[in-house]
Amino acid sequence: MSDIMMTNRIVQIHLASWRYFAALTLPPLALILSLFYFALSLPLMVLFFITHYYCWRLWLDERLFALLNNEDDLAEFDRGMAQLWPKKFARSRSLADRLHGTRVMFYRAMISLLVLWLVSLCSVSYLALTLVE
After folding, report:
1. Which of 88, 62, 94, 102 is CA-nearest to residue 75?
2. What secondary structure letter does DSSP report for 90?
3. What tens digit of pLDDT does each residue of 32-63 get?
4. Alpha carbon of 107 to those of 54, 82, 91, 103, 126: distances in Å?
5. CA contacts within 13 A on the Cβ side of 19
6. Angle (deg, nearest 10), helices 95-132 and 41-65
7. C-alpha to C-alpha distance for 44 and 24, rounded to whole angstroms
8. Angstrom distance (rounded) from CA 85 to CA 29
9. Contact at 8 Å (CB) between 62 and 18?
10. 3-class SS string, 11-75
């Protein structure tokens, strides 16, 4: 197996974790729905949608990386992507650039999920403290 194929398989395996990221947003979603009339639900809802945007991007990258098997596929891949996104794919990028962008997207997804959970836990703590008083 060539290096590029092995790298793509490893990247695809990590990108498949979008499913777990999406599943981990369900408890904060339940909190959002239960706090719907509180002001705390708005930042949680924004973070929820940001996290799901990143999950969608990871899902999309997982599917797109499945199309790349070697460096020769990049030009054809760029032509196909330029049909939908003409300005973004006007110049060709190397596989290393694409992998870097995917890594950044993966870390952003993890960070947004962590922030969603932290804000959720802080919201629950705040509500618990204010209801006690």
Report:
1. 94
2. S
3. 888 877 777 889 999 999 999 999 999 999 99
4. 10, 26, 25, 6, 28
5. 5
6. 160
7. 14
8. 32
9. yes
10. HHHHHCCHHHHHHHCHHHHHHHHHCCCCCCHHHHHHHHHHHHHHHHHHHHHHHHHCCCCCCCHHH
Radius of gyration of the chain (CA): 19
List, for residues 73-113, the tens digit of each pLDDT value: 788 888 888 888 777 666 777 888 888 999 999 999 999 99
**Closest C-alpha among 29, 7, 9, 5 to residue 116:** 29
The residue type found at 6 is M
Quote the tokens at residue 119: 């804000």
Residue 127 in tokens: 């509500």
Handedness of CA 45, 47, 50, 54 (dihedral sign): negative
